[in-house]
Amino acid sequence: MDEGPGRSRVRVPRGMADRAREFAAAGRRPAVPRDAATVILVRPGPGADGVEAFLLRRTKALEFAPGACVFPGGSVDERDADPAIAEEGWIGPAPADLGHLLGISAERARALVCAAVRETFEESGVLLAGPSPAELVRDGAVLARDRRRLLDGSVSFGDLLGRRGLVLRADLLTPWARWITPEVSPRRFDTWFFAAALPPGQMAALAAATGPAAQPGPGESDSGTWLSPAAALEAARAGRITLLPPTAVTLAELAAHQDVASILAQRRTITPLLPRVIVEEERAWLAMPQTVHYPL
């Protein structure tokens, strides 16, 4: 890592450097970012280790970030915008209030929260929903069946919640950050990060969905693990795992907290963070926003 004036600069892979040169030479227009949401699942660490975060390892066959360790999440689906989800079963800040906090419309905020909860369920088996405002789902067997149906497209997330009589727990999500893929990337995402505690009673569902005995499925990850933020960053520095810059920055931010409660109590100002690819002679760098320090 090199330090520019007020910025952290990260070396980028040769492929991205080549794309950056072609992008600049051709005067291309940046691709429009697709809305996405991700959930930073946290739990108390063992002993005096503070907190642990859950990371999924993306399959190596994927075009975008193959093999990288990421938080559960994904793109907003058109069905995430179904207004019935908020009208019939939504606990927490109203979409309009959440939109005001995030600086976006109520409709967009509603779709992002639905995508965050749906994608976390699909990818990790953890469902941030329950039968009442004071309860969360605990039946792992039911979770597993519903997750498979959601993954194969035989049921929508709204239908799943409605048939099970569940309410979406938007109150469990703490807005954390917003990262936008660099303009030179052919596939771009405008991703909102939310923090949430692992719900009581759902560890078994998570293990069944992401552990060694998990059944192969159409998901984008092949395994999951809990690591303290410091351990994850150290593993990345040693080359044992790969972290995308937003994931590494987020883990460094989590490392400053001693417990889950202090993470969820954060009331952060959410502003877009857009890294830029800079080409200098034969080298290319990812210049991080001025407010960000890259920890690797």
Cα radius of gyration in angstroms = 19 Å
Residues in helix, %: 25-40%
Low-confidence stretches: 1-7
Count of the separate structural domains: 1
Tell me the major beta sheet. Answer: 8 strands, mixed
CATH fold label = Nucleoside Triphosphate Pyrophosphohydrolase
Q: Would you state the CATH class?
A: Alpha Beta
Q: How many runs of DSSP E, i.e. beta strands?
A: 15
Shape, per Cα inertia axes: globular
Number of helices: 10
CATH-scheme architecture: Alpha-Beta Complex
The N- and C-terminal alpha carbons lie at a distance of 7 Å
- The proportion of residues in beta strands is 25-35%
Describe this structure in words.
The chain has 296 residues and is an alpha+beta fold. It has one domain (31-264): Nucleoside Triphosphate Pyrophosphohydrolase. It is built from 10 helices and 15 strands. It has helices at residues 14-26, 83-88, 95-102, 106-124, 140-151, 157-164, 203-210, 229-237, 245-254, 260-264; strands at residues 2-4, 7-11, 34-44, 51-58, 69-70, 73-75, 90-91, 129-130, 167-169, 174-180, 189-197, 221-227, 272-273, 276-280, 283-287. Strands 3, 4, 5, 6, 10, 11, 12 and 13 form an 8-stranded mixed β-sheet that branches. Strands 1-2-15-14 form a 4-stranded antiparallel β-sheet, covered by helices on one side. A 3-stranded mixed β-sheet has the order 7-9-8. Helix 3 packs across helix 4 (106-124), helix 5 packs across helix 7 and helix 8 (229-237) crosses helix 9. The longest helix is centred in the middle third of the chain and has 19 residues, at 106-124. The chain starts with a strand and ends in a 9-residue tail after the last strand.
